[in-house]
Every structure is written in C-alpha cells, then in structure tokens.
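Possible regression after last week's pipeline update?

I re-ran a chain I had predicted before the update to compare outputs. Posting the input and the new output here so someone can diff against the archived version. Not blocking, just want to make sure nothing changed silently.
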Amino acid sequence: MATYNRHHLLYESASWEVRPESRCLRRSSGLIVRMTQDSHSALHNAVTTVPVPNVYMVRSIAHSFVPSPDIFQAMDNLCFSIDESVNHPRATMLDRRLGQLMIDSVVTQRPFIREGMV
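New output (post-update):
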C-alpha cells in the first residue's frame, strides 16, 4: 500500500517558516500537494531547496500571487509573480538571479508532482 506525503512547493521549512511573510506565502492555497512518498522523495533528491528571497521580494511575490486550487496553475501563477518581482525597478542583479533560481526550482518539481500527485 502506498504512503502519502504533503509537499510544499516552497521548501525547506526551516528557511521558509522563519519570517511571517515567507511562512504565509509557503502555506498559500494551491502550493501544497498530496503525493506518493516515493515521488516526494525523488523530488527532494532532484531539487534540494527553493531559495528564500529577501523580505521585500517575498512581499512583492505574495502581493501579486493568485492562488489556484489547480497545483499546476498555482505553480504558473507563482512563477509569474516571481518574474514580476524581479522586474521591479528596484530589483538588483542578485534579486534577478535568485528569482531565476526560484523559478527553476519550482518548474523542476512539475514532472515529479505530475507523476506522484493523488
């Protein structure tokens, strides 16, 4: 019999749960999916973490993020919000690079979630 886990798209919890802003974004509707333990483990082996941006960038992402009950739409919405945030006039080169790492980390999770979601 298969075992199931709840997967948060924004992880590791030790990093994302520190500040209220990042905690709230991490726990947003649609960014948590139930999946098989095997797929969940494979996902974490392939994508070890999603980097946490500074508080201003987290606020910007959270402000424009539109939750969705569809995990794949929520992932697209999150990537769009990250992209919007890094294109803000005050975003630095480091913000842009970190944003791209975040997007890459989220997108790389997609096939694992597709395979293991229940």
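Follow-up from reviewer: compared with the archived run. The beta strands are 4-8, 32-36. Marking as no regression found.
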